[in-house]
Design brief:
The chain is α+β, with helices and mostly antiparallel strands. It is built from 6 helices and 13 strands.
Length: 251
């Protein structure tokens, strides 16, 4: 997947951002907010098939699961609103981590968001170290951990943060998602995140996250090279995505 440098900065805010996201460090927090003009827009994906039906894909028929979001609520994690559900988890958020998700499509979705956001340098080694060691798998998990630690050490020195404390809060919203495929064993989805750009504009990025069912819970597969930027892209439209209720706590 060919991803733009600007998109790398944005997604590292959500999980890593996360977003997401989505995580070598939250871009808005570590490197400053990238101007909207520097984030090339990704081509809007074709709309997903209706929930519960199979949609065509390059590898044949890909399953798009039926997921009700009626039970989804928002929980603040260092001022980032994350989706949670009494039906699908996480059932335990003690110590800053999020574990125990239902073995369902909604459980997979919530695991992708909650684990992906926490596997980030922004929150300090107590959180990202615990999350990556226990809830991230795949051949690049060690690289993700090393990258988070290096990013945290550098940012902590610059910001005068000590004792492994979080680097601060960020302004980012988990807005929407798009299924790529799902099975009870594994799932892949795109997560759309948003943050403020220049002049009050909203900039968006998407990060692709894979989860697998392993050891009685969902785990996130580390991104290629242990860098969420390799799975991120700028996003100009939410066409084809399913919006979370309230799009991030209604903000």
């Amino acid at each position: 997947m060919n991803r733009a440098p600007g998109a790398r900065r944005l997604i590292l805010t959500a999980a890593a951002a996360a977003a997401i996201l989505l995580c070598a460090g939250l871009a808005f927090a570590l490197w400053g907010r990238p101007p909207a003009s520097r984030i090339p827009a990704a081509t809007a994906p074709a709309p997903s098939s209706p929930a519960g039906t199979a949609g065509p894909g390059s590898q044949g028929q890909l399953l798009v699961p039926r997921v009700s979001l009626a039970s989804v609520r928002w929980s603040s994690f260092y001022r980032v609103d994350l989706p949670v559900s009494a039906q699908a988890g996480p059932y335990d958020t003690s110590g800053g981590v999020a574990v125990r998700f239902a073995h369902t499509p909604l459980g997979a979705l919530l695991a992708a968001v909650n684990i992906g956001v926490r596997a980030n340098a922004q929150w300090g080694p107590r959180i990202f170290g615990t999350v990556i060691r226990g809830q991230v798998t795949g051949p690049d998990a060690a690289a993700l951990l090393a990258g988070c630690q290096a990013a945290y050490d550098q940012a902590a020195r610059s910001a005068g943060v000590s004792g492994g404390q979080p680097l601060g809060t960020v302004d980012v919203r988990e807005q929407a998602f798009r299924w790529i495929t799902y099975s009870p064993a594994a799932a892949i989805l795109d997560l759309a995140v948003a943050g403020p750009g220049d002049g009050g504009a909203t900039v968006r990025a998407t990060v692709q996250i894979e989860v697998i069912w392993d050891g009685g819970d969902w785990k996130v597969v580390a991104p290629p090279g242990g860098d969420w930027g390799n799975s991120a892209a700028g996003l100009s439209s939410l066409a084809g995505y399913t919006a979370f209720p309230g799009q991030g706590g209604g903000r």
